[in-house]
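Our platform keeps sequence and structure together, in a single record for each protein. Because each token names a local backbone shape, the row as a whole describes the fold. One such record is reproduced below, unchanged from the form in which we store it:
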Amino acid sequence: MFKTKIDKMIYNLKQLDEGVDVNLLDYLYMCTLDMISTSATDVDIDLQDGKNREYVDAVIAGADLVAKRIITVPYHIEWIYRFSSLYEVEKKSLRAVNGFLDRIIKLKKTMFDEVADAEEERREELAKLNNEEIETKPKIVINQLFRFWTRGQLDFKDVRDELDVMIYTGSDTSTHLSSYTLLMLAMHPEVQQKVVEELQSVFVDESVPFDYDSVKQLTYLEMVIKETLRLYPVIPYIAREVKADIKLSELILNT
């Protein structure tokens, strides 16, 4: 699924005229939002094809207003914030996002219940044959949430809120990490060349699958991404404590 979404983004970029300045952040955001929404809900939403635009605009507006509220100190006070125009934007975007997710949740819950009933019968039969209880773990996020819902540990709103948080936070952080990494590669062509060579050595032709085992071999690219995170953390609220003296070139970080 991830490769399909990335291929779609590359295809859209290739349709642009040569020599035209492009804000890659827009394309990266649409791609990551498409991937995260699809992986979380198990529904191919096709955001990069221009579908469900109201949902996309609502997610973007929601992410923007969160940033604006953080940097506007008076809006930290709830009653002041509720009198602001941002609060109206928040309500509008939440209505659009929640309405979209509500439709997906209801659809997927019906499908989940049908599959769960059949799966329960299969598990009981296997348990009788093997004289043991067989545990089947769900692989999809929304199905895991439905499991908790069925057990009474979550309700409809809890499921929707979990999806909200995953989609909002995941799309924004992944987009900015990708954009900063591309910026660093553009600023350091010698590093970019090493990344290209590593990619070519792993993916020698189209027969090599783009999967977890292949990605694990991209050790240099991993270092580039981690260095980018160090220089441009997407969420700069991580503190590290030095527990032993560390020598960095001619400097020493003392405990």
About this structure: The chain is about 70% helix and 0% strand. Residues 188-254 form one domain. Residues 44 and 253 are 49 Å apart (CA to CA). The chain has two domains: 1-113+155-182, 188-254.
